[in-house]
Write a structure and sequence with these properties.
This protein has 175 residues and is an alpha+beta fold. The protein has a single domain, classed as Aminopeptidase, CATH 3.40.630. The chain contains four helices and seven strands; from the N terminus they run βααβββαβαββ. A hairpin with a 5-residue loop joins β2 and β3. The radius of gyration is 16 Å and the shape is globular. The chain starts with a strand and ends in a 13-residue tail after the last strand. Bound molecules: coenzyme A. Coenzyme A binds next to β4, α3, β5 and α4. Keywords: Acyltransferase, Transferase. One of its GO terms (molecular function) is acyltransferase activity, transferring groups other than amino-acyl groups.
């Protein structure tokens, strides 16, 4: 398995992975499938802002999964905090792909001066919670019934990893 930055040619595969998760899983709280144009806009928005979109590929070049992060919240004072996501195709799960992708995102975030990574995870997603705990994330919040899908209320678990010991930016710079 190889990790590399995604290219525009990978976007149809990213769309398939995303829409499969929308259809089948409570990991994404929407029933709305994306179009190729929407996923292309997402991809160019992320990469154009210097944010990583990383794919895991096998030796034949087949995409096994992807990970990315983007701003956690819009206001400037949150700008050193990123929210990430990782998706692995059904066939490739349980073989270390998710762990490799999340570790790569952690490494990229550290290299970019990000201070905190946040994972916002369906509370029933034991695999994702275990993966995050494995890489040092702590469960720092649980928001009961803040979402719904498949006819059920869903709880959101927030898991965070502080990446460095940097002092907070000076007063007056959260503008
Ligand atoms: C959650 C997901 C990203 C994990 O990726 P993966 O490639 O399947 O997981 P890995 O093989 O890298 O395993 C990483 C760790 O997760 C845990 N884990 C993996 N499979 C598990 C399972 N079935 N049950 C419990 N823990 C599991 C283990 O702690 C494992 O670490 P270890 O092998 O060193 O003990 C992947 O299963 C996935 O994409 N699922 C569907 C979409 C999704 O839920 N995305 C996350 C949204 S927050």
């Amino acid at each position: 398995m190889l990790l590399r930055p995604a290219t525009a040619d990978d976007v149809p595969a990213l769309l398939d992975i995303h829409n499969d998760a929308v259809r089948r899983l409570a990991a994404i709280w929407t029933d709305k499938q994306e179009t190729l144009a929407e996923r292309q806009a997402w991809f160019h928005g992320r990469t154009g802002a210097g944010l990583p979109v990383i794919v895991a590929v096998d030796t034949a070049g087949t995409i096994l999964g992807y990970g990315s992060y983007g701003p956690f919240r819009a206001k400037e004072g949150y700008r050193l905090t990123m929210e990430h996501s990782v998706y692995v195709t059904d066939a490739a799960q349980g073989q270390g792909v998710g762990k490799a992708l999340l570790q790569r995102l952690i490494d990229e975030a550290k290299a970019s001066g990000v201070h905190v990574l946040v994972g916002a995870i369906d509370a029933e997603n034991a695999t994702s919670i275990a993966l995050h705990a494995r890489l040092g994330f702590e469960t720092t919040g649980r928001l009961p019934q803040v979402g719904f899908k498949f006819g059920r209320w869903l709880d959101l678990v927030l898991m965070t990893l502080i990446l460095d010991a940097a002092p907070a930016p000076a007063a007056g710079t959260a503008v």
